[in-house]
Amino acid sequence: MRPEQVSKILTQEFESVFDGHHTPVMLWGAPGIGKSQIISQVAQAHDVEIIDIRLSQMEPSDLRGIPFKNGKLVDWSIPSLLPDEKRHGKQGILFLDEITSAPPTVSAAAYQLILDRRLGDYIVPDGWVIFAAGNRQGDRGVTYSMPAPLANRFSHYELSVNLDDWAAWAYKNKIDERIIGFLRYRPEHLFEFDPAHNPVAFPSPRTWEFVHRALKKFDNDLVLFRQAASACVGEVAGVEITTFVEHMADLPDLDAIIKGEQVNIPTELDLQYAICAALAGRAIAAKETDDAQKIWGNILNFARDFPQKELGVMLVSDMQRAIGSDIFAIPEFADWAGKIAETMFD
Predict the structure, then answer these.
(1) Burial (0-12, 13-18, 19+ Cβ within 10 Å), 208
(2) N or C: which end of the chain has fewer CB within 10 A?
(3) Helix 205-218 and helix 235-247: axis angle, to 10°?
(4) Are 201 and 289 spatial neighbours (Cβ–Cβ below 8 Å)?
(5) In a 3-state reduction of DSSP, which class is residue 95?
(6) Domain annotation for the chain: domains and CATH numbers
(7) Gap between the terminal Cα atoms of the chain
(8) CA-CA distance, 121 to 119, in Å (whole number)?
(9) Nearest-5° angle of CA 212, CA 213, CA 219?
(10) pLDDT 10s digits, 262-281
(11) How does strand 127-134 pair with strand 155-158?
(12) Count of Cβ atoms closer than 10 Å to residue 200 Cβ
């Protein structure tokens, strides 16, 4: 399932909790594809706290609490890490991360918490949702087979990697446009994980963010950047992204394009992808400026006349996902759409 779809499902689960319609969610997926990040984004969007419990690092008593004598009875102390309305707020997310890496004794302690929303005398506050995430057994991580009683307490979704969704996230989070352009050009490098070989460094949405950080640190020394990138995504992808970045010196004047001036478009396909990624970034950066509609119109005119029509469509699609419906009101959008439709039907 695409990240965008998973995000919508988790958002609806969060918003439905007070109506009594919330079902605990188990999110499956390979390492590094953004499972934890999507859940964190739901918490950020609603400005609520997320309590991240790593079950793989816990003992059963960490959840159940410690017994203590109370007269002739034995009571259980409530762990401070569990959601408390007074300390953590009326709404929030209880996130059971790495649940498939938890020993069976720990996952068994979570059964009642997940299904009944309670552990002994402790009750999960009404406004809190329960999400969990973990790797699949074939991913070569430290995983246990999820027991049927635990699995039956969740709704299950498997997260996949999608380049369009990643690009939308990347623009929003100001990932370097050169990395976006490279992955548009070489989409197979977005996620490459072969559990049979169990690589140390491999390309994933998580590690491409690491490459972005490396580029910010070593932009002026591409020899070091190549080594840093290879340390994040592996030797093959590290060398290719470095070559791509070196090639960016041949880009046309992007400022001239957003001013509506004519420029010569390079014939190299990698540079054309880089131009589109960079212009999408410029369009997003202009969103809150007085010149936004003028800049968007000039970029739309450029996309309309772009020699590789599918790249022009990619550029406008990335703009629309980031800008929203405002782009439809620009006269140049109708011109672009008409030219694209004419080309397609021809």
Answers:
(1) buried
(2) C
(3) 50
(4) no
(5) strand
(6) 3-158 (3.40.50.300), 163-345 (no CATH)
(7) 34
(8) 6
(9) 80
(10) 999 999 999 999 999 999 99
(11) unpaired
(12) 6
Q: If you average pLDDT over every residue of the chain, what do you get?
A: 89
CA 285/CA 164 separation, integer angstroms? 19
Mean pLDDT of 103-107: 79
CA distance 195 to 238: 20
Give me the pLDDT at residue 61, please: 73
The 10 Å Cβ neighbour count of residue 27 is 26
- Report the percentage of the chain scoring pLDDT > 70: 95
345: pLDDT strictly greater than 50: no
- State how far the Cα of 182 lies from the Cα of 173, in Å rounded to an integer: 17
- CB of 94 closer than 8 Å to CB of 140: no
- Angle between helix 235-247 and helix 222-233 axes, rounded to 10 deg: 140
Token representation of residue 153 = 């307490």
Tokens at residue 136, please? Answer: 């699949």
Q: Which amino acid is at 229?
A: A
Spatial separation of the C-alpha atoms in residues 273 and 248, rounded to whole Å: 11
Q: Where are the alpha helices (DSSP H) in the chain?
A: 3-15, 35-45, 60-64, 85-88, 104-115, 148-151, 163-172, 177-185, 205-218, 222-233, 235-247, 254-258, 269-285, 292-304, 309-323, 331-345
CB 258 within 8 A of CB 300: no
SS3 69: strand
Rounded distance, CA 234 to CA 176, Å? 19
Q: 135-155 b/e with 16+ CB inside 10 Å = b?
A: bbeebbbebbebeeebeebbe
Which conformational region is residue 248 in: left (phi greater than 0), alpha (psi within -120 to 50 degrees), or beta? alpha
- Residue 179, number of CB atoms within 10 A of its CB: 21
